Amino acid sequence: MCGIVGCILKDKDAAPILLECVKKLEYRGYDSVGIATSSRGLSIKKDQGKIDEVDEKLQITDLPGLKGIAHVRWATHGLPTRENAHPHTDCKNRIAVVHNGIIENYKELRSKLEEEGHRFTSNTDTEVIPHLIEKYTDNGVGLEEAIRQAIQQIKGSYALAVISTLEPDKVIGVRKESPLIVGVGEDEYFIASDVPAILQHTNQVLYLDDNEMVILEDTGVTIKNLDNEVLIKEMHTIEWSPDMAEKQGFEHFMLKEIHEQSVAVKNTLMEESEIKETVKKFRHFQRICFVACGTSFHASLVGKYLFETLLGTPTEVVLASEFEYSSNSLDENTLVILITQSGETADTLKALKIANKKSQTLAIVNVVGSTATRDAQHVIYTRAGPEIGVAATKTYITQLTSIYLLATCMTENEELNQQLKKIPEYIKTILEMEDHIREIARRYTNTSNAFFFIGRGFSYPTALEGALKLKEITYIHGEGYAAGELKHGPLALIDDDVPVVAIAPPGKSHDKTVSNIEEVKARGAQIIALGSREDDVLKSEAHDYIEFTDEINEIMSPITYVVPLQLLAYYISIERGIDPDKPKNLAKCVTVE
Ligand code: AGP
Question: Atom 12, ligand 1: which residue's CA is nearest?
Answer without folding.
Answer: 340
